[in-house]
Amino acid sequence: MKETFFFSHDYNARNDRKMLRLKVNLKMCGVGIYWSLIEMLYEESGELFLSDIDVIADELRTDPDKVLSVVKDFELFKNDGEKFWSESVLSRLEKRQEKSKNASLNAKKRWEDANAMRSHSKRNAIKESKVKESKGQDSKEELEKNPDDKIISLPQILEAEKKEKEKSCAQKEKCLLILAQSGINPLNPLYESTWLILWDQPHFKGKPAAVMEMLARNLRDYDEDYAIKLMEKAITGNYKTVVWEDTKQKYLEFKNRQNGIKPIYSRENNTRVSTQPGKAFGKL
Q: pTM higher than 0.70, yes or no?
C-alpha cells in the first residue's frame, strides 16, 4: 500500500486576501481547485508542469482555463514558464525531509550503540567460555590420571548441546512473555533486543521472573526511548538495577525541558517548588 502523509492547513486560510479574491472570481470551484493543486504538489515533491494543466483539469473534472487562472492570476503559486510551485509547500517539504533525515541518523546511532552492547556481552561470554574451557581442560587432565572413569560419547555431547539450545530459546520466550504480561508491546525493535541483553547480564540473569516482571512494570512509566536508555546504562555500567529512587523525578525534569517548562525555585533554601503552578518537588 502506498505511504500517505498529511500537511498542515491553517484553519483561517479562507480569510487570506488572495483566497478571498479567488472565491469572488471563481466561487468555491476555485477554492476546490486550489486545495487539489496543493495536494498534488505534495505528491510530486513540490512542483508541477504547466504543460500538464489539461491533464490536471481532466482529473479534477473541470475547465483547464479555470485551473490555469488559479495558478497564475491570484498570486497563490509561482512559476518559471515551465513549472509552477507553492513556496509554503516547498518550505514544509524541506522541514519534513530534515526531520526524516535526523530520525534516520538517530536510528542508525541507536543500532550502532546496540551492536556495541552486543559486542560487550559477547566479550563477557568469551570470558565465561574460557573459564569453562579451563575447567574442561582440568577435567581432561583428571581423566588422563583416571582412565577408568566414564568417557562421554559424541551422541551425548550432541544431545547436551541440543538441550542447551532449547533452554536458550525457552529463556528468550520467557523474557519476551514477561514484557507482554507487564502490558508492554514496544514499537521500537531496540526495546526487546535491549531487554534480552539486560536479562543476560550477571546482576539480572539469576533473578526470579516475578522480580523481572516488577522491573518491566516500572519501565512502563517511561516512554520507549527513555526506557531503552535506562536499560543501556544498566548494561554498560553493570548496575544492579535499572530504575532508581530519583529516576522518575529526572524523567519529569527531562520531559519538562522538552516541553519548554522551566522549574520554579524558592529563594530561601534553593528548593524546587514546582515545574507548574500547584505541583511540588523536593529539595534539589
A: no
